[in-house]
Records
---
Amino acid sequence: MSPQSTPQTSRQLPHLAQALAAAAARHETPCGTGSMVWHVWTPEVANDALAPLLLFHGGSGSWTHWLRNIPALVASGRSVYVPDLPGFGDSARPAQGRDADSLSEYIEQGLQLLLGERSCDVAGFSFGGMVAGFLAAQFPARVARLILVGAPGMGIKPEQPVRLQAWRHLGPELQDAVHRSNLAALMLYKPEAITELALGLHVANVWRDRMPGRRLARTDVLAALLPGIRCPLYAIYGREDALYRGRMDGLVPVLQQAGDFRGLTFIEAAGHWAQFEQAGAFNEALLAVLDAAP
């Protein structure tokens, strides 16, 4: 299925992403007037005692936000399910709504078709963290453990607001400079982390964002959900996350509103997209959470 309104000037995914996608099983489940696309990696020797792992990407993203993490997670013996959320990547837009609060039913419907009633460990990055929070609140039996990764919606504002530059009106020769600037402003902490791979993934993803006007990330919508979430809750954030710069101390009091908050891990020398910028340290932290006693 081709996503609606994808510009002809969009770029293909980098070869590394194409190769990883080719190793996955691709499934499509109903969404709006089209389908929601799922990418599923199954280990050669699966550990059936481990819950399936469900990963949600960030806004203006796709499954490729987890590109540098999927191989290690699959190697741990887990089946890894990574959808393109409705309105992003190759997935159709939802029939109604254009923000994190309008996606849970499509996700649950897809999981029913793919996994039946089986519960999952769920990690949500950025916008996907809010989506994961709504899924845990609305379908609690589905989520065994919830891991928030750089999630907004906590009602905490950084010392300096993040300002992104518009780029669609520019010619191709100027767009890459703006994309690099935006990656530095929001996603990545170290200048050297803005590699050709990071740029290629970002550009391919932002062209396929068909969910304009999202506003919930600037509110306390996720914080308001936390008191009603009863599964174990963990959080992993980049120490230099631009969304919380100068306000990191405020995260734990908000997270503690959840009924079973288990801890916050910081990834040093990493910004918002911590699982890409410091993939090794992030993979170690996430696997430590997943391997912990439930």
---
Amino acid sequence: MSDEIEIDIDDLERRMKGAIESLRHEFASLRTGRASASMVEPIMVDAYGSPTPINQVGTVNVPEPRLVTINIWDKALVSKAEKAIRESGLGINPQLNGTIIMLPIPELNEERRRDLTRVAAQYAEHARVAVRNVRRDGMDQIKKAKSSGMSEDDQKFWEGAVQELTDKVIASVDQALEAKQAEIMQV
């Protein structure tokens, strides 16, 4: 292999792993009938005149599999936090107990579970497309390097390395999808 022409495989790997992290974040936002602290992360509360994430105005806990509690630190913000939860589109009716807001998570019906598995599959497909785009960028780098004097053996080596990385990352996307779909369908 020539020393002056190399492909930045670490950058490609970092970008592919970024697609997986994005997928995991999207999966965490899917409501599976099981309580999760991440389901309230996007909720913004109008605190002291500016929108503030709900986890910065109170402590978010998951004491039971079907219950999320938020212990609001400032009593003046309890009603604003409750209003933000109602308007968030989560479809959960908050219950107040002093400064604690309780969010009971309802059971999902079979049709809603199937819909969520389809949404999860769409998220996974978006992640696969992102990984393939990174692969294409890597292959373009290899083509440019070949036109700059990279040997055919080096070209084959780097193409194999990029393809191997792509296959590995897509396999982990598929694993994450299977795990999420199993979690959604679990009654």
---
Amino acid sequence: MDIAISTHYQDYLLWGLLLLGGLPLLSYPFVVLASLMGLASRTTINVHWFYRLMNKSFLWGTLAYPLVYIPCYWLARGENGSLSLAYATLPLLFLALLYLCFRWMDVPSKNKCPDNDKDPD
């Protein structure tokens, strides 16, 4: 009885993880367009190499997301046990990594000018 209940909850968890990982694919056509435009653009702003790396990693990562999700989806459906849960979790970890790249891709520089605080009148 306990094994059947455990398997039932494991199935629900597996499908929940796969659903959460698949939801970003609904917006993928729009993301592809934006990422391609971002990769095609040329910048004249000199930024630190780390922020440029985060920017390119985010843009390429959003383009590659289906290449991460689809194999993990098929592997998670084909396996049984905790290995299937690990495969279902990989796309969510990739999304967390993309979030970190997004968070650090365009950090503005803090140039404070004392003249900005003055009243224009």
---
Amino acid sequence: MRWEKLTSQEIGRLDRTIPVVMNIAAIEQHGPHLPLDTDARIGGHFLEELDRRLGESVLILPPVVVCASEHHMDFPGTLTVQHQTLLAYVSDILSAVAAHGFTNILLFNSHGGNQGIGQVIVESFGARHRNCRVGLLTWWRIATDALAKVQESGFGGVGHACEFETSLMLHIDGTSVRKDRIPGHSHVMTYDWANSDLLRGGRGSLFRTMAEISGGSGVVGDPSLASAEKGAAISRIVVEALCEIVRSLR
């Protein structure tokens, strides 16, 4: 169910233990071949599938699509807000949800730059609302073993506007992908302890702008290996994992 599509009375009649899910995404550059709303479209797709499968067993909030993308600001079109702004804004929305009595809340993240502040939101909101269970899910982290079996590129092949994100967009809306502009592999590595990709975290973290990581291309990974069929497989894996997690809250 979509929060904004219900009436006030219909919201009032709902079981307050129903899981409430909000997508936090991004409007930012995605290389020469993907639109700025790629992260928002991907997050929205997963929650549409969640809604289709679980229906009256889940309540989906309106998404927050402009989030923490300062590291992409070297590229035209990127929109961003400060971490403090996102913390305050999302926390205020979740506080309204809690004020209406809902106790199971999930942030569903579809942008790498939201992971740090997303965890801060969970920690700060959870400490102030002890009667709620609040969690953070990032789509590529909820089923990493299964997703690794889909990946054809080696380490560093999935990152940003990459094999996975391009595949998902080909599956979701192939007409939005500039197929004649899909580039090859791009990923500028750094210290061994800081190297990572979507599925494999480094031993530590190191701040770099997207221009640095991508060598100026805006792409981290290998979108040349993308396909709509692969996007469909990724979608199935993520949605199944997401449904399992949401059901567990009931």
